[in-house]
Amino acid sequence: MTASHGNHSQLTSESLRKRRLRNRRIFNLAVVITIITLAVGSIGVIFYELRPVTLKIAVGPAGSDDLKLVQLLSQAFARNRSQIRLQPVVTEGANPSIEALRQNKADLAVVRADLDLPADAQSVVTLRKNFVVMWSVRGRGRKSGAIKNISDLPGHTVGVIGRTPANVKMLQVILSESGVSPDKVKIQQFQTTQIAEMARDESLDAYLALGPLDSKITIEAIAATAKARGEPRFLPIDVGDAIAKKFPIYDSEEIPGSIFSTSPPRPEDKVDTISVSHLIVAKQSLSSLTVTRLTRQIFAVRQQIAREMPIAGKIEAPDTDKDAAIPAHRGAAAFIDGTDRTFMERNSDYIWGLILLLSGLGSAGAWLRSYLTRDEREIGGKMRDRALGMIGKARKADSVAELDAMQHDIDRILRETLDFYDDGAIDDLEPFGLVLDQFQRAAADRRSALIASAGSDLEPPQNETPERDPPEPLRIAGT
């Protein structure tokens, strides 16, 4: 019977040991999977925040200052290992660039503000302001300087530099607002490479050029016509303020004296005119964070590349007013207004969500461990109760051998209990420690009594130790 009980106990102990190992592997696997998932998620967030983003920017035509400027920006970003990179998409001009943006073949486009932009196009930066410059020369059969104002243009021909229809439209706006019917003024367009031919054309009485004040094309055109036809008379656009109010795409400006030449001074004094901005635009749907970073990078390298290309120094912030003709992209406005958010501010909701997730995972882990050790807790309680029952049996033991068998069982129960404690099935060893202490005292007292009753002349059994003071009760750490 005793052997059968021992075999059963051994099988039960072995079964519990296998179950504990299995549960421990399941729990450890769950912990590892959770840690790996969190690590991968964290790495993914860091990669997303720090990844380089390449934006395609439509610009043209080939060889233009706009393309050279974009290429310098692209090189500077690559050299500085910036997060935002630029990939130029060369087009035939501003209108094809707009079409590339409209068809999602480009993320950005270099355009003039007075062109037909997509409804959702928004400005990122203003590359420069293009000033309208108008001047007159002596015409055939007319006295030199006969055209002194725009109101004198009816019946005359104006040569417009640049083939874009936007230049003609701008001249028509200027004529209409100046009280001149556009139908009474003949307009002839020339390519930027036809300046010499334009200057020799005596059928022309006035000219219009559009570009920055230091534009080589404008300066060359003025000098060429002056050489071929005599000194120019610059025509003021006195209705600039009215045009700017009626057509917000234009701005009222002044051309400083002697800006095109100092000897002789051209013009002799300041001249009223209008301007239109040259912009980098993006669709409203482009990430505000991406545009904020792009805007910051452009202004960071602006002065650096201005050493190679002075026109870069003219880059300025877009109009952030709510009623602007072309509204600033929210990402650019955030940088300009100083309202761009930090990493913590942008991701505060995700961070709090992660904290809640970790808290939930901790609770789930505790529940899983509790679930996996539910049988062990029940068995642990039964072993404590069994040890408690053995206290009474120890006090009534008939022999030292019976006490030794009980001690062997207690040792096994102690090992199992400590294993359960390591697995988390038992949270507190103090109750078991009290039971173990009481058993040791009862066993020691009964052992002393049995030895004494056997007679002082009897030798103790071979497997018993000589009588000595009761052993110090075994105490478990924490009890």
Task: Describe this structure as you would to a colleague.
The chain has 479 residues and is α/β, with parallel strands linked by helices. It has 14 helices and twelve strands. Strands 1, 2, 3, 4, 5, 6, 7, 8, 9 and 12 form a ten-stranded mixed beta sheet that branches. Strands 10-11 form a two-stranded antiparallel ribbon. The chain has helices spanning 2-50, 65-79, 94-102, 165-177, 195-200, 216-229, 240-246, 288-306, 330-337, 343-346, 348-372, 374-395, 400-423, 430-453, and strands at residues 53-59, 84-90, 108-112, 121-136, 157-161, 186-190, 206-211, 233-234, 250-255, 261-262, 265-266, 271-283. The longest helix has 49 residues, at 2-50. The two termini are 36 Å apart. Residues 1-11, 140-145 and 474-479 have low confidence and may be disordered. It folds into three domains: 53-119 and 284-337, D-Maltodextrin-Binding Protein, domain 2; 128-279, D-Maltodextrin-Binding Protein, domain 2; 374-479. Helix content is 50%, strand content 16%. The chain is rod-shaped.
> What is the C-level CATH assignment of the largest domain?
Alpha Beta
Major sheet details: 10 strands, mixed
In CATH terms, the superfamily of the largest domain is: Periplasmic binding protein-like II
Helix content: 40-55%
- What is the total number of structural domains? 3
Please tell me how large the radius of gyration is: 46 Å
List segments where confidence is low: pLDDT < 50 over at least 5 consecutive residues: 1-11, 140-145, 474-479
